[in-house]
Amino acid sequence: MALETIILLALASAFGLYMAWSIGANDVANAMGTSVGSGALTLRKAVLIAAILEFSGAFLVGGHVTETFRKGILDLNAIPEVRLLMLGMLAALLASAIWLQIATYFGWPVSTTHSIVGAIVGFGIIVAGVGAVRWDGVLSIVSSWLLSPVVSGAAALVLFLLVRKLIFEAPNPVNAMRRLAPILIFLVFFVLSLVIALKGLKNLSLDLGFVEAMLIALVISSVAAFIGNEMIGRMRAPDAPNAKEEEQAAHVQQAKNALPAIVRALKHLRSAQDKAPDFLSRDLEESLEVLQSAQYELEGISEHRLPAFHEKSYLFVERVFKHLQILSACAVAFAHGANDVANAIGPLAAVWEIATTGVLSPVVPVSPLLLALGGFGIVVGLATWGWRIIETLGKKITELTPTRGFSAEFGAACTILVASRLGMPISTTHCLVGAVMGVGIARGISSLNLRILLRIFFSWILTIPIAAFLASIIYFALRAILG
Fold it and tell me: I need a labelling partner for 432 at 20 to 30 A (CA). Which of 29, 282, 304, 347 fits?
């Protein structure tokens, strides 16, 4: 093997490992961010679990063949020489990794797929011109900046509101949790089984159709619901409340439910008073005083502590959701390792193919060694810098509890599943950020850290152009050095 080829392969391996490290530091942390933020897992346990599942997903079921270009973003026939293509792939790997490291340093969760696509666009324009880029694919990716967080946020918000209404606002939250637990467990395992079967195991070439995957998911989720129901039934619950405690809890809950309507009524009445004629002013003033008095009374009642039973009941419910959230995070981590390792290994495999054979096919083989390299890089990235993104997603956007964290993760998983099935462009990172926003909105806009969110949205917009710019600069540097 020629010295130049050895140098190119060494560079490709180093850049690929760096890219895998960057993926682990930024993208993998998304799967565990809400679990750490809600207290379901400690940071150390989250890193350990994610490391095992991400590596298992990448090495065991990561693709043994991979697409040369993700999303079909570049026309191969427009590249004049395979050597230029090889240098371009090297530039794309390094550029993507650099941008992901910058974003991770500032705690910005960005899409690794968007980063590698932007880098490929950058060197593609330099090598073959604007016409070589398939801009319809780029536009579909840009559309996901809005589509992913909005759909996922809506799904998480609806799920959390249902949980709050059906369980937390029930007269007996423990009984409500036990009654609904089998349904929740069934839905969780059904959706996650489908995600793993259709998205996480697709590289095994099992040829699972949607019907077969649904049947497998139905069996798994039914068994899980039965076992989970038995386990929850054996969990120790607080003693049942007496009649006085029930009445007090109902009184407090009624006050909390009525307070938002009173506040809205006051707002509209003040607006009407400003526009009303003088002869109605006194009547409106009296109505305002009555409503204001009602608001003060309801606020006082709402601040009363609930009976000990209800406080313990809420802790019981959160404990159940803590286990559901951990299961959800594990499935997302496994599926992510199986799929997104291709963002690091795809360009690396392409360089190896060109360097060793002199040609490049639309799909190229991936050796177990490369899969292991990618899995190792992902794990190291998560263990060293993953805490930065975990902190942003789990703690800086909004306050999370196990129920909110579960709603966010499950809402994102449902969105990913439906979008994958429909062939819609969607980003796992954007889905999770949008889902966390959704559960935060349930408590009002003021519960969201808008400053952090603006920075995250700005980093999404910058991802493709900055990756493209870095790739073009690095490509010129490689051409100058390697000839």
Answer: 347
The CA distances from residue 219 to 214, 223, 226, 326, in Å, are 9, 6, 11, 21
Do residues 284 and 315 both lie within one domain? no
What are the phi and psi torsion angles at 236 (to 5°)?
-70, 130
Give the residue numbers spanning the domain of 287. 243-300
Number of domains in the chain: 2
Q: Are residues 85 and 39 in the same domain?
A: yes
Q: Are residues 230 and 268 in the same domain?
A: no
Please report, in angstroms and rounded to a whole number, the separation of the first and last CA atoms in the chain.
18
Kindly state whether residues 143 and 248 are assigned to the same domain.
no
Q: Is residue 332 domain-shared with residue 260, that is, in the same domain?
A: no
- Is 305 part of any domain? no
Angstrom distance (rounded) from CA 386 to CA 398: 19
**Predicted confidence band of residue 307 (pLDDT cuts 50, 70, 90):** low
Same domain, 220 and 293: no
Residue 325 lies in a domain: yes
**What is the length of the chain?**
483
Of 79, 57, 129, 66, the residue nearest 343 (C-alpha): 66
Answer whether 90's CB lies under 8 Å from 8's CB. Answer: yes
**C-beta neighbour count of 228 within 10 angstroms:** 22
Per residue in 75-120, pLDDT (tens digit) is 777 787 888 888 888 999 999 999 999 999 999 999 888 898 899 8
Residue 453 falls within a domain, yes or no? yes
Picking from 259, 277, 300, the residue at the C-terminal end of a domain is: 300
Q: How far, in Å, CA of 359 to CA of 323, rounded?
A: 50
Confidence class for position 356, pLDDT limits 50, 70, 90: confident
Lowest mean pLDDT among 36-45, 214-223, 310-319: 310-319
Confidence of residue 68 (pLDDT cuts 50, 70, 90): very low
| Angle 200-205-206 from CA coordinates, rounded to 5° | 85
Strands 363-365, 65-67: pairing is antiparallel
CA 198 to chain centroid: 18
CA 6 to centroid of chain Cα atoms: 38
The alpha carbon torsion through 476, 479, 482, 483 (nearest 10 deg) reads -150
pTM of the model: 0.79
What local confidence, expressed as pLDDT, does residue 65 receive? 43
> In degrees rounded to 5, what are phi and psi of residue 63?
-60, 130
> Do 339 and 452 sit in the same domain of this protein?
yes
**Phi and psi, residue 303, nearest 5°:** -85, -10
In a domain, 456, yes or no: yes
Q: What is the DSSP letter of 107?
A: T
CB 241 within 8 A of CB 308: no
